[in-house]
Amino acid sequence: MKRLFDENGMLNIADIVAENPSYKAIMEDGVVTDQELKDQADATLASLHRLQELCSEEQQDAVLSAITDMSVLFAAYHNYELQQLVK
After folding, report:
1. 45 to each of 10, 35, 40, 49, 80, how far by Cα in Å?
2. Angle at 15 between CA 9 and CA 21, to 5 degrees
3. Burial of 83 from C-beta contacts in 10 A (0-12 / 13-18 / 19+)
4. Are 60 and 52 in contact (CB under 8 A)?
5. Which of its termini does the chain have fewer beta carbons within 10 Å around, N or C?
6. pLDDT digits (tens, 9 = 90+) for 8-56
7. Which residues does 5 contact at the CB level (< 8 Å), separation at least 6?
8. pLDDT of 14
């Protein structure tokens, strides 16, 4: 089973993403297409629906909180990187 944190306690998302078959397939030719984005969006929705079915309300709250925090971090980091381009 893949772990969220490595042996040093560091978040392991980069390795998890890099090893993901969907990501590898999308990045194989170095070009991300509209269809690949749509397919990944569909797969993401299917995964989230599965989580909703499997998890209790308390577990869903924890998952939603983690997804929200990761999304906020991603958006803030993206905006930070854009700021660095205009400096």
Report:
1. 27, 15, 9, 6, 28
2. 145
3. exposed
4. yes
5. N
6. 988 888 888 999 999 999 999 999 999 999 999 999 999 999 999 999 9
7. 11, 12
8. 85
* Tokens 């078959």 sit on residue: 21
Query: What letter represents residue 36's amino acid?
Result: E
Residue appearing with tokens 């569909």 = 42
The residues, ordered by sequence, that sit 6+ positions from 63 with a Cβ below 8 Å of its Cβ are 51, 55
Query: Of how many residues is the chain composed?
Result: 87
Q: How confident is the model at residue 3 (pLDDT cuts 50, 70, 90)?
A: confident
Residue type, 27: M
Single out the residue of 23, 17, 47, 16 nearest to residue 37, CA to CA. 23
Lookup result for tokens 């993401």: 44
Spatial neighbors of 23 by CB under 8 A, at least 6 apart, are 17
Q: How far apart are CA 57 and CA 25, in angstroms?
A: 34
